[in-house]
Write a structure and sequence with these properties.
Order of helices and strands: HEEEEEEEEEEEEEEEE
Number of helices: 1
CATH class: Mainly Beta
Number of domains: 1
Largest sheet: 12 strands, antiparallel, barrel
CATH architecture: Beta Barrel
């Protein structure tokens, strides 16, 4: 884990050093923009000797920024939301391929140069029920509800220092960050077995509080004409418990524009949070679909 952290820190340092001469200062007033994407996939087979399973899937996503800058004040806000489903012929259940809602707000008051006194807030959750799938004694697929809206939900906030070169290049250090995890206590039981480690919340409780250090960074660049890459990184360590253990959340969004309405979209996300899962969680979504920028 330490090697991963040092590698990420080195990459961030190199990116910032390289980009200092290429980024521009934030413009004053409100600046809004984002995109909506819709990815669709369908496969159908009939007498196909090499095998295959009929399926249909779709994913809807939004990535929207509304940032404000005037004189010595900067206020950046971002919404990331996506939801996807897939249905296969051999399963009676439709299953999620994506389910994410995240809101970020970062306020800064200029201190000196590109440094600002800052305060940030981050909210993460999902839209709908999540399930764990298994089979009964007859081999039939069954499912048990495991997660839902605000179960888990993560609210993180705190004061710190912001370094901001532009809307596309910034990082924030917050040494006194509060993190609150919300859960629904009714979802702790799966197949009659109580999950004592349900997202790190103690049995009988619905809230977990942490106080720690948060470091976050954002860098968006154009790799080439019509190809943009967005990088979002967040690191957190809890002073109150296992301070050496660092939670990581990294997302890369790659948009390859074909024309005004069509694009190829690749999203890769990796998360390390041992309160949710002891190991790296990863997801990857790729497709060609309708993409509208505004």
């Amino acid at each position: 884990m330490k090697k991963v952290m040092l590698s990420i820190a080195f990459i961030c340092f190199c990116v910032i050093s390289y980009a200092q001469d290429n980024a521009t200062s934030p413009k004053e007033g409100w600046k809004t923009g984002g995109n909506v994407s819709f990815l669709f996939n369908q496969s159908s087979f009939s007498n196909w000797t090499t095998g295959g399973e009929n399926n249909i899937s779709a994913t809807l996503g939004i990535n929207y920024d509304f940032n404000y800058s005037k004189e010595n004040v900067t206020w950046d806000n971002k919404i990331i939301a996506s939801y996807g489903l897939t249905k296969t012929a051999n399963s009676e259940f439709e299953k999620k391929t994506d389910d994410r809602f995240e809101f970020n707000s970062l306020y800064g008051k200029k201190a000196s140069g590109n440094w600002y006194y800052s305060a940030f807030l981050n909210l993460k959750t999902q839209f709908s029920k999540g399930y764990k799938y298994s089979k009964d004694s007859f081999g039939k697929e069954i499912r048990d509800e495991y997660t839902n809206l605000l179960s888990p939900g993560y609210l993180t906030f705190g004061p710190g220092m912001l370094w901001k070169k532009s809307d596309n290049l910034k990082f924030n250090l917050a040494p006194l960050t509060s993190k609150i995890t919300f859960i629904d206590k009714k979802l702790r039981t799966i197949n009659g077995i109580m999950d004592d480690k349900y997202f790190g919340v103690d049995p009988g409780k619905s809230i977990r509080y942490e106080l720690g250090f948060n470091a976050s960074g954002y860098y968006k660049l154009n790799l080439m004409e019509n190809v943009s890459m967005e990088n979002i990184l967040s690191l957190y360590t809890n002073y109150l418990e296992e301070a050496k253990n660092v939670d990581l959340d990294y997302t890369m969004n790659l948009v390859m524009t074909i024309n005004k309405y069509l694009s190829a979209n690749l999203t890769f996300q990796t998360v390390y949070d041992d309160n949710a899962h002891r190991g790296f969680q990863t997801r990857e979504v790729f497709g060609i679909g309708v993409n509208y920028g505004f």
